[in-house]
Design brief:
Length: 949
């Protein structure tokens, strides 16, 4: 025991001294190991700190209250809820009947003697220095002790009078206002003074103002409705405190009592001590339950995580291993002296392994300390990025220790091969600098070949027979490890082309092949990095090709549409139309309106008092058989496939942002939509409706539109299986050819036609054609103009398919290039240390000075080329496996959809090889690595005394 302790103590002292002596090499290895530790540790600290405890979440939601009472709008019907009140439904089964709706008297469910604080939240458009900003309006007495924790005061104070408000910091930044400024709401003449700024800890980017109860929402709502505008849509909840008498808080039994009265309750006591799933009535219903990840899914996630961690450690070991080999090679005389003074192979291995242990420990300490410091220093930026405050700076010693242990293990694993290689050298060879005869292992290539075949088979099985990503990942990882094991043999095969190369590249290739012990790890490191890049690039490019084929334009290329779907009678539409006209390079502008039933202020989809709706009546003969509920259950899969291909069941691929797909416009709209049909323009002029969906027309070519003024009566009629009441308007039509793209529209009628038929309309927006595709600057200008209107606008600019893989591919190529250059540079340094005698011999026989520089460059380039070629081949396998798995899954979904009667195009799942990325890796990266190595290598000849042999 004492001998073991002293030998390792001496070995660690020697390793520490060598690490300090060769600071450059030590820093390189330390950085390679410490950077991943820094990133993972910082990620762990950030996620754990951002993960709120139950107590912290309750404080941000409830403040100091015991519970929050919520109206689910079920009209007082008893409800069933989850413990957090996020999921709920009526207790009674309303299947086949009308779903309950209406307000509930929440105060009846509040226990007697409890303290209550109202919390109302609505919205409105507030005037800013830039125009109008849609913001949340919250009426909560923030100075009440019960509300402490919900809002955090930054500056100033909370409102104390009806004419005062406080605002979130983000609102003040976005609006250009400050404490002391006057604030007004659109539609309300009253002014409010901003007296403070605050933040919502879990929503730092929220635009919200706070007022006292009754000070802003109610007056604003009345003023807006008086102008036939949508109200504030306020929703009121109640914070309830039971006082000191109820030490147990608001229990689950009390929550259920409130549920019986039709009220939801979010209780602090229930959150801290939730009931068992068996005691939650909601979870006993079909379709509900405590959702938990299956053991198979957890196993798959752990397998995927283990594969990623293992491959990352392999990459670091392959990169750091040659660096330790460089140190061992340059210290071989020192190691020989250890052997000459009685040290055995155990001591030699201990010294080299000690270097890995020292670097690993230092990397773990440096990575962890930097992670702690940077995460703490960058905490405000991280919180702003995540949009919420940390609960606390949560340090988990076991997790950080486990991450740090990876650094130590990685350092040791990186030094294992150099340690074994160094211990096998004889004392004489170490002292004289002789390399000895080096034989390659005959077992390793066989093992590698078996691993490649087995891994490829597993990946193929995973892609064709299962839908488990973990199986494909495991097979691909095994195959890649097999290629790594085959690398020494494959490097030997590259040596056969040396006879056709000039002097410097021939010497470089010959030296790499003869010294496979140092070449193979560097080539394997490049292989691993390039394989990952090629795999992700292949999958990304293939997915991009699939998305491009599936892309459906919503408008002609370069066209623009803008719509204001909210109520208000279209009062903001002219301003929005002009904003687009002024900001973009417009060629043709086509103003459009929508059909409106009821008062002009009704929103598109109704819902307000005095608002109706319309429906385009589809003739019975034109209804899709799949949509007839009485026959739906009787159809066989074959019949569903048959009817799914029927013209009556075809749907437009473009989603329509217009209710019913009916627009009111003139011939300019047809020009903007590139509808080249002279008869269509003529039909509009004659008062006909231009029809794009022939299912809507009767046999005589007319379209009927039912104007429904009483929505409730219409719903009851539909439930009873009767025709809904309403006046029916009939229009003559002109059907455009079937090959014409309608971009989601079903028909267009002229304003004169609508007026003549007594159909009410309100402005909706406009369609535009452009002289050129709008630039980013023009779009930003338009966004600013629209923001000033304070209106919710649906803006579309058709730019065609825009894949996002180019940036990803560039980043991956740069990453693989850096890894390749780094690995090739390490191999080059090792080669120079190993071939110093050859270089002196070249200088002695009169070789030009540039030979040393070009030889160094070609040594680096040879390693890079071999690694890129092998990595490119190895990286395609997992990508193909994943794409085949995707194809199998989508084929299954397609067949299932056909059996249900849904018709779509067969899935297109191509496998596309990223030739551009591979060419850049194969040409640009090795060339750059070779040039860089040549530039940093000294070319002058230094004739020194050769060691005696």
């Amino acid at each position: 025991m004492t001998t073991w302790y002293h030998s390792w103590r001496a070995a660690l002292r020697i390793a520490r001294r060598d690490a300090w002596r060769y600071k450059g090499r030590s820093f390189l290895v330390l950085a390679m190991i410490a950077l991943p530790i820094l990133g993972v540790s910082a990620l762990d600290l950030t996620l754990r700190s951002a993960e709120l405890s139950v107590s912290e979440s309750s404080e941000r939601e409830l403040g100091r209250a015991d519970a929050r009472f919520i109206d689910p709008q079920y009209g007082g019907e008893a409800v069933l809820q989850s413990p957090d009140a996020q999921n709920y439904q009526p207790k009674k089964n309303f299947e086949g009947s009308s779903w309950p709706e209406g307000a509930t008297d929440v105060k009846k469910a509040i226990p007697a003697g409890a303290t209550v604080l109202e919390d109302s939240v609505g919205s409105g458009r507030l005037r800013t220095t830039h125009g109008l900003l849609h913001a949340e309006i919250r009426e909560l007495k923030a100075t009440d002790p019960m509300a402490r924790g919900i809002m955090r005061l930054d500056e100033g104070r909370f409102p104390e009078k009806s004419g005062e408000v406080a605002a979130t910091t983000h609102f003040l930044e976005a609006s250009g206002l400050r404490i002391g400024s006057k604030l007004t709401a659109r539609g309300l003449d009253a002014e409010y003074r901003i007296v403070g700024s605050y933040e919502l800890p879990s929503a730092l980017k929220a635009d919200q103002v706070n007022a006292l109860p009754g000070a802003m929402l109610d007056p604003l709502d009345k003023a807006l409705k008086a102008d036939d505008l949508p109200g504030t849509s306020a929703d009121t909840t109640y914070l309830v405190s039971l006082g000191a008498s109820a030490s147990g808080g608001f229990t689950w039994n009390m929550v259920q009592e409130a549920n019986a009265k039709g009220v939801l309750v979010n209780s602090r006591a229930v959150a801290l001590n939730p009931p068992a799933d068996a005691d939650i009535a909601l979870y006993q219903l079909d379709g509900w339950g405590g959702y938990a990840q299956s053991s198979a899914a957890q196993t798959a996630e752990l397998a995927a995580l283990g594969t990623i961690v293992g491959l990352a450690m392999l990459e670091i070991c392959l990169l750091a291993g040659p660096a330790f080999a460089v140190g061992a090679r340059r210290s071989r005389r020192q190691l020989g002296l250890v052997g000459a003074n009685g040290g055995d192979r155990h001591h030699i291995r201990a010294i080299v392994l000690g270097g890995g242990l020292v670097i690993g420990i230092v990397s773990a300490v440096v990575g962890t300390v930097l992670a702690l410091g940077l995460t703490f220093a960058l905490r405000p930026l991280l919180e702003e990025y995540l949009g919420k405050r940390f609960g606390s700076f949560d340090i988990r010693p076991l997790e950080l220790g486990g991450i740090a242990l990876l650094a130590v293990v990685t350092g040791l694993l990186s030094a294992i091969v150099p340690a074994i290689t160094s211990s096998r050298q004889t004392v004489l060879a170490s002292l004289t600098g002789r390399r000895g005869v080096r034989k390659s292992s005959r077992v390793l290539p066989v093992v590698g070949l078996i691993a490649v075949v087995l891994g490829a088979s597993i990946a193929l099985y995973g892609s064709l027979m299962t839908e488990q990503f973990a199986v494909i990942a495991a097979g691909s990882a095994l195959a890649e490890l097999g290629v790594v094991a085959l690398t020494p043999a494959l490097v030997g095969l590259f040596g056969r082309i040396g006879r056709w190369l000039p002097l410097s590249p021939r010497l470089a290739l010959r030296d790499s092949v003869r010294n496979r012990g140092r070449t193979a790890p560097a080539v394997a490191a490049v292989l691993a990095a390039v394989a990952g890049t090629v795999a992700v690039s292949t999958y990304s490019v293939s997915s991009d090709a699939q998305y491009r084929a599936e892309y459906t334009p919503s408008l002609p290329h370069g066209a623009v549409s803008v719509m204001v779907t909210e109520g208000g009678g279209g009062r903001d539409v002219p301003t929005v139309r002009n904003a687009v006209q002024k900001s973009l390079p417009i060629d043709i502008r086509a103003d459009v309106d929508r059909i409106n039933v009821g008062k002009p202020s009704c929103p598109m989809y109704g819902g307000d008092d005095g608002c109706g709706q319309y429906e385009v009546i589809v003739p019975k003969a034109n209804e899709c058989p799949l949509w007839q509920e009485e026959d739906d259950d009787e159809l066989t899969p074959a019949e569903r496939r048959k009817w799914g291909k029927d013209w009556r069941c075809q749907e437009d691929d473009v989603y329509s942002h217009v209710d019913g797909g009916v627009l009111v416009g003139d011939a300019k709209l047809l020009k903007v939509l590139d509808i080249e049909d002279p008869e269509a323009e003529k039909a509009l002029a004659e008062g006909k409706v231009v029809l794009f969906d022939k299912r809507k027309a009767d046999k005589d070519g007319t379209v009927r539109i039912r104007m429904i003024t009483d929505v409730d009566a219409a719903d009851k009629a539909l439930e009873a299986g009767k025709e809904p009441p309403g006046e029916i308007k009939s229009f003559a039509t002109h059907e455009v050819p079937e090959n014409v793209k309608a971009y989601g529209l079903s028909m267009v009628m002229s304003p004169d036609t609508a007026k003549a038929a007594g159909v009410g309309t309100v402005p909706l927006g406009a369609y535009y054609s452009t002289t050129s595709l709008p630039t980013t600057a023009q779009e930003q200008k338009l966004d600013g103009e629209i923001d000033r209107t304070g209106t919710d606008v649906n803006l579309q600019i058709e730019k065609g398919f825009n894949g996002e893989t180019s940036i990803v591919l560039l980043a991956l190529t740069v990453f693989a290039g850096l890894i390749t250059i780094g690995a090739a540079g390490i191999a080059t340094g090792l080669a120079q240390a190993d071939a110093e005698a050859d270089l002196k011999t070249l200088a002695a026989v009169g070789a030009p000075a540039r030979v040393r520089r070009t030889l160094s460059g070609f040594q680096c380039g040879v390693v890079a080329v071999m690694g890129v070629i092998l990595g490119s081949v190895a990286g395609v396998l997992p990508a193909i496996g994943l794409r085949l798995s995707d194809r199998r899954s989508q084929e299954g979904w397609y067949q299932e959809a056909l059996a249900q009667g849904s018709v779509s195009d067969p899935p297109f799942v191509p496998v596309v090889v990223p030739w551009a990325t591979m060419a850049a890796l194969l040409i640009a990266v090795p060339l750059g690595a070779a040039l860089l190595a040549a530039l940093v290598t000294r070319s002058h000849r230094t004739l020194g005394r050769r060691a005696a042999t």
